[in-house]
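Prompt: I keep going back and forth on a fold encoding question. Comparing notes only helps if you start from a blank page. Show me how you would write down a chain together with its backbone fold. Please set it down just below, with no commentary around it:
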Amino acid sequence: KTEFITLSFEELKEIEYKEIKIKELDITRDWLLICCYTAQRVGDFLNYTKDNLITLDDDNLYLDIVQAKTKQQVYIPLNNTIKRILKKYNNNFPPLYSKSKSYNEKKFNELVKRVGSYCGLNEIVTANLKVKNRLETITDKKYKFLQSHTGRRSFATNYNGKINTRLIMAITGHKSETVFNNYIQRKPDELAKEFAIQSSKLDN
């Protein structure tokens, strides 16, 4: 199975509350949290603006976007972390690095590794990393594997087993559960324990 790293809810909280005084890294930290809680590709989440914010009839705040790759419309509920980030930027999303889409994506992928290092993601892991356009399996500190797609994989993994798969896929925009399952990075023992918890609720 292809192995990629993900960030747990606990790690995301540590990242959120880490004091970062370097403005560029602070902005990147906020974008990292946004992508981990909204599950979109880099070409979508770096395009978020306040024009995408809507309130539905349940009075909750949502993102209303059309995915660039699939042309699929998705509504994404915003949690308290993202609401705090919006408030930090006067009810808007963090600023971008430039007016160039390609530069913004490249810069995010460079800086997010520095954010991970700054936040102490130094656990030694073995995972896949693209090196000179080739996918290689290497062992290194976790922060070195951080990239824009980490958010999408983290979202799918963190909510898997806790929220109905169909509802998660409605946010990620996956049409196929087979493709969606490739994003789930959970060990067999973790899945077994999750099954034990859920099945115990049905056991008389």
Notes: The chain has a mean pLDDT of 89.
